[in-house]
Recover the amino acids of this structure.
């Protein structure tokens, strides 16, 4: 198979994760009142980002193997 | 008018990036489509984990996500029966027992299996009803999406229909089933990442599971049920009056757990197509089993928010838009909860997940439609014996045609809602008996073409007859039943009536197929049936695979885990 789905999955979720983390770090605390006062963008963004990186890692590892 | 959701810059950016990726995937796989098998069956090259997640996602249309959350609010944890009874056992059965015949026969579609196993008329009956059904389902999906965007965000109805239909059209036109499958996997992760924070925040807000239980006791008592009705899935199934679903355990287990569930998961080409696209027999058998693991956990993602919502509504902390008759519009549970809990950022992720599920629901229908149309209708009845390139072209044309008819169906649904309800009713009649035909076809070699066809027609007739002579309590005669003049039986709920319609249809089809098969001569010889019927198919020596790749082992694990879940939440 010359198309590895883990590559686009890794790209999109590391991008989404990074966007959420940055937004979470820079935004006003008041935004999170509805989320029980928790900065869920920062926390969940980190999880999504980690998933994206893991997918990218697997895709690149598979690519290096002949 | 105030809209329940307001998207900020980051939310719109996430939505836009998602659309670009979806189209990008279509573009990237375009060059892999060289022949019709690539377009319709992904060249039978999909690894098990991808096929499995796509198998799950193809069913995870928005009606499913929105409907299951709505049921979570209306019926509580008993909604999990649609997963733990109504899906997992059938998925395991498909992987362990049925996939060897679907994949091994090299049939390119479910109707084509019916032709190989039975005869042309049985295939034609199934192919035509399936093709019409998928295209209308796709239209209904499109209509529901546009309607939702109108209510949620105030987007223009025509604009929403145009954009979503165009995106689906482009990526399927370019990449065929492969595009659809890859996007379904993307959508699966979107749903998980988009909805998990919602379920988590909701549960936390309710004070954890123990506190939620106490709160839901108040909901149950307020609706004149025993405390615990919303948090115990089996204990209140003794009689239809004891639970808000209005069903009892036998109708539930037979109607939903057996007939409807096996009928859908084991014979609906929309899902089976994903397994047929797998890269080997082993991967094809593992496809529904890989799907069963996340499916088992989905109630926590989609039903739980509904349960939290009804507790909050009871306490006056959340309001749902009302239906015209003043009742709560439970279909708004998920959208309203998204707006209630998720801040900008996560809201974009959750909202995009919702959009994704609508589009993949539509795409799943379109890919199943173009395959059945091209192979089972066009190639069989209009233009047999043409080149492969010709059928590939027809597949692309059918995609355009299918999307256009979906759009027309969406407008039809917007204007004449009753016509759509009527059509769905007719399809339910056609589908109800189908599993009896497959069960006899795969496990009884004496079943023949005449038997199968007559059984299907009789089963469909029995479904219509049963529906026409019964009514759910409190409903007027008409679309809900009783349209044949007399009402022989009144069911406590529409759900109970549906389950029993299915049970009747299945039983009549089974007996009809048996009797007619015995009364008429077999139309296929034993060698012709090799690979299609259990007793005539040589058992392949078990491949030297590690335990975690063996279908039976996976099936036992997933069934045991499901049993545990049933016991924990009984």
């Amino acid at each position: 198979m010359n198309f590895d789905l883990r590559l686009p999955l890794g790209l999109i979720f590391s991008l989404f994760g990074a966007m959420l983390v940055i937004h979470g770090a820079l935004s006003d605390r008041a935004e999170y009142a509805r989320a029980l006062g928790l900065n869920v963008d920062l926390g969940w963004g980190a999880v999504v980002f980690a998933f994206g990186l893991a997918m990218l890692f697997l895709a690149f590892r598979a690519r290096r193997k002949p | 008018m105030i809209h329940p959701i307001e998207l900020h810059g980051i939310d719109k950016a996430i939505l836009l990036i998602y659309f670009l990726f979806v189209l990008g995937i279509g573009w990237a796989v375009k060059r892999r489509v060289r022949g019709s098998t690539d377009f319709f069956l992904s060249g039978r090259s999909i690894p098990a984990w991808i096929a499995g997640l796509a198998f799950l996602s193809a069913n995870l249309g928005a009606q499913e996500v929105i409907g299951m959350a709505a049921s979570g609010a209306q019926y509580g944890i008993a909604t999990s029966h649609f997963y733990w009874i109504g899906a997992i056992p059938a998925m395991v059965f498909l992987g362990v027992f049925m996939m060897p015949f679907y994949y091994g026969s090299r049939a390119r579609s479910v109707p084509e299996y019916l032709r190989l196993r039975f005869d042309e008329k049985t295939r034609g009956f199934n192919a035509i009803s399936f093709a019409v059904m998928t295209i209308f389902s796709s239209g209904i999906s499109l209509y529901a999406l546009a309607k939702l965007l109108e209510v949620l965000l105030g987007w223009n109805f025509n604009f929403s229909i145009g954009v979503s239909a165009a995106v689906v059209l482009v990526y399927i036109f370019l990449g065929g089933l492969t595009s659809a499958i890859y996007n379904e996997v993307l959508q699966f992760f979107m749903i998980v990442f988009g909805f998990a924070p919602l379920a988590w925040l909701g549960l936390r807000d309710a004070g954890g599971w123990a506190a939620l239980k106490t709160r839901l006791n108040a909901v149950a008592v307020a609706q004149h049920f025993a405390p615990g009705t919303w948090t115990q899935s089996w204990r209140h199934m003794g009689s239809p009056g004891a639970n808000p679903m209005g069903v009892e355990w036998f109708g539930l287990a037979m109607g939903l757990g057996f007939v409807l569930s096996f009928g859908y998961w084991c014979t609906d080409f929309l899902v089976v197509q994903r397994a047929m696209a797998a890269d080997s027999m082993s991967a094809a058998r593992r496809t529904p089993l890989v799907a069963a693991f996340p499916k088992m956990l989905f109630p926590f993602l989609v039903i739980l928010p509904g349960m939290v919502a009804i507790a909050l509504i009871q306490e006056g902390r959340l309001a749902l838009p009302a239906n015209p008759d003043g009742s709560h519009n439970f279909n708004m549970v998920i959208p309203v909860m998204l707006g209630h809990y998720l801040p900008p950022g996560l809201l974009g992720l959750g909202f995009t997940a919702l959009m994704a599920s609508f589009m993949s629901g539509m795409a799943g229908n379109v890919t199943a439609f173009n395959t059945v149309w091209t192979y089972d209708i066009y190639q069989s009845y209009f233009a047999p014996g043409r080149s492969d390139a010709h059928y590939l072209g027809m597949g692309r044309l059918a995609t355009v045609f299918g999307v256009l008819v979906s759009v027309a169906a969406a407008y039809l649904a917007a204007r004449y809602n009753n016509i759509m309800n009527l059509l769905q009713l007719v399809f339910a009649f056609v589908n109800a008996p189908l599993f009896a035909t497959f069960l006899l076809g795969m496990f009884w070699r004496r079943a023949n073409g005449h038997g199968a066809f007559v059984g299907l027609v009789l089963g469909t007739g029995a479904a219509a007859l049963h529906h026409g002579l019964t009514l759910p309590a409190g409903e007027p005669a008409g679309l809900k039943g009783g349209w044949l003049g007399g009402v022989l039986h009144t069911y406590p709920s529409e759900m109970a009536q549906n389950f029993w319609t299915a049970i009747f249809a299945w039983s009549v089809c089974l007996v009809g197929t048996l009797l007619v098969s015995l009364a008429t001569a077999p139309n296929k010889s034993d060698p012709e049936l090799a690979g299609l019927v259990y007793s005539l198919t040589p058992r392949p020596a078990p491949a030297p695979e590690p335990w975690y790749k063996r279908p039976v082992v996976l099936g036992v694990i997933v069934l045991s885990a499901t049993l545990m879940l049933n016991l924990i939440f009984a």
Chain A touches chain B through 29 residues (CB under 8 Å).
